Structures are given as C-alpha cells and as structure tokens.
Amino acid sequence: MDLQNSWKWSSNYDLTNYTLVVPSVAVGNVAQLACDLLIATLRMEKLASIYTTAQVPLVGCDPYNLASNTLATACELYVSAIHNLLVLQVRSPLIQKRARSFLENLVDQFQQKQIKDIIILSSSFAHEKKHIMTSPFRFIASNNTPYSERIQMANLIPHEQPESDIKIFGGGYAAILFNICKEKSLPCLCVYKYCSEGDNVPDAYDMVEQLQNIFPLLDRDQNPTTQFMQPASWKLLFGRPPPQEIY
C-alpha cells in the first residue's frame, strides 16, 4: 500500500513565521510528555489531525479535558497564536519503512505554510552519556538556526558526533527529521536529554524548562515550575491502582 497522508484542518490560520515543536517517540516518551505539558500549560487549541499509513493507529479520549466528547488520534497539531507556536503531538510510533516519506511530507506541508523553523525534542539512553558530570542535555543545530545566541547563553552542550553522521541512540526519528530539515533548508534545532525508562514526568518538566531558555513561553519573572499545568491524562499515566480486593 502506498503512503497516504490526510490532513484535516479545523481552522484556517496564517502560520507564517510560526515555530513548530515536534517530539520524537524515544526513550521514556520524554518529548511527548513535554509536548503534553506545553499544550496543557499554554491552553493550546487543536488545529489539525493527521491520518497516515506511516503511523500505528490510535484513538482515545481528549487527554487535556477528560469531560470532553472530543476524541484524540495518533497525530494532532495544536496552536498558540499568542506565542506563534505550533506543537505536533505524536502519540504512537512511526512504521520504520515509511517514516522518512511521512517526515518529508510533514516538512513540505509546513514549508508551504511558511513556518519559521522546527524544534525537535527527543531523548537518548542514559548509558550513552560519556561525560557523567555534565548536563544531561545535548543539542544539534542547523547553520541557519535563529537560536544561536540563546543556545550560547543557556550553555547547552553540542552533540558529540559529527553532523555528517548524526546518531541519537534511543532517539527515535529525531536524526532523520533533522537531516530532512537540513536538506530542505528549513532552520532546525534538536534538543535531547539522556534518561532511562520509568517515571519520566520529571524529565518532561526539565525539557520544557530547557526549551524556555531557548524559546521563552512563560513569564520570566516567575519560576517556570509554578506556571506549569499538568495535563488531565497524567492522572492515569501508570494506570489505575490495584484493586483492594486482592489484598
């Protein structure tokens, strides 16, 4: 079956000069959790649903309002007009042999919308971190990224491998998407964190705080953690508690 992508837009926004945040399905789902936190905190509006044969299908309740009758699907786009920000939430893995074609279509769609740049969030296996005493965050940036000065101010550590052969172990499709953006001359920044599987909610908070240093979204005069709004779906992050009848 040929790759098919269907974009269903709910509103007609002018997305010129918007920034798009894309999570990579990676270790601990840190990037997806960080995007959940962004969407809930900024009260972002759902702008589009993407249906593709490149992704494992998924449907469920609205993760940001458990009283809502709206269904959520595997790939949805959210917008904050105040911040000129788009967040593409990816809730299930991409099928490997179709991933690149889907990601190329993704970049093409947003280039047609004339977005400013893409920020990729990801994670990597904790045991791949070679310098134990350094920050757990690393970045890869294209030459035309608009965040060069802010990256220096945030003291982010660059990815330790040559840009000609980018590998983020456990990082999902982050490296593929970054290379596609470079090929198509779309400014791109990838930020990832070394972590392990488990309760990765703290990692998600750390990721959004790191993003705040590069792309300010919250009130700088207040502690970012006091401004976060936890998504409703996180109440069910580890399932229901065991039934008391078993004890």
From TrEMBL:
Q: Which GO terms describe its cellular component?
A: cytosol; nucleus
Q: Which UniProt keywords apply?
A: Chaperone
| Gene3D superfamilies noted in UniProt | PAC-like subunit
Listed Pfam families: PAC2
SUPFAM superfamilies from the UniProt entry:
Cgl1923-like
GO biological process entries = proteasome assembly
InterPro entries cross-referenced by the UniProt entry: Proteasome_assmbl_chaperone_2, Proteasome_assmbl_chp_2_euk, PSMG2_sf
Q: What name does this protein carry?
A: Proteasome assembly chaperone 2
Which organism was this protein described from?
Answer: Pieris macdunnoughi
